[in-house]
Amino acid sequence: METKEQLLEELESIKRWENDQKGLWIWDKLARLPFAFLDRMTPSFIQKRIGALLDEIGYYIQSGGKYLTQQRGTLKKLERNAGMPVHAIEDVTSIPLRAMDETALSIQKTHASAATVQGATTGVGGFLTLAVDIPATLAISLKTLQEIAVSYGYDPNEREERIFIIKCLQFTSSDVVGKKAILQELSDYTNRSNNKQIISHLQGWREVVLGYREQYGFKKLFRLVPIVGIVFGAISNRSMIEDIADAGMMLYRKRRILERMISLDAKNESENRL
């Protein structure tokens, strides 16, 4: 297990990442410009499919539904990377942070590759296959974040963790102000009494849907040209999943580090009393 000094160093690297989130990439800024125009030329069935994401995300928060993922595969990866038995999520809390990171990175790579293939495939058919791409991308996003949650010892079967996962999605699609607000909300997630306040902010999942609308706004533009649509579909889907995985890894990693620091402080205090 890591020392407190090592955990503080890891926490510093996460703080640097958080500071890097203060600005939007130029691509993200450009993505917002043509959307008002593109929105008017979108077929109604696409608009309805995007709107249905609200219901699907709400259903996921409440029950997990069809989006809940199997944990066994992730636990096996953790077991290999840690070199020790990992039979349940409770066992994950005692493995080194390095093994958690390696597992999360492999999950990112696997799902980014799957999203690339999916984006290229659905890029062939223009608007018609775009309707298929919308729920498929949401499914990959949620699966990626759930497996990353397990990698750091958190159970997506718990409603509180599904809320955290939606906050990770919201973070990825938010602007600078939104990112700052979410980081503030999640900064004390280890304090369970504070989670009721976060639950009360769940209207924020609408921002996730708006983020999807902007993402698909650009996809609509490029899918007017079939070959370009294939290439852009692959690149944009891969980039989207990589960004989501990055956010999930950093935010879950921060929670695990903070909880380990609290545990170390409690252990040191107990030893000093003796």
From TrEMBL:
Domain of life, source organism: Bacteria
Entry-linked InterPro entries: EcsC
Official protein name in the record: EcsC family protein
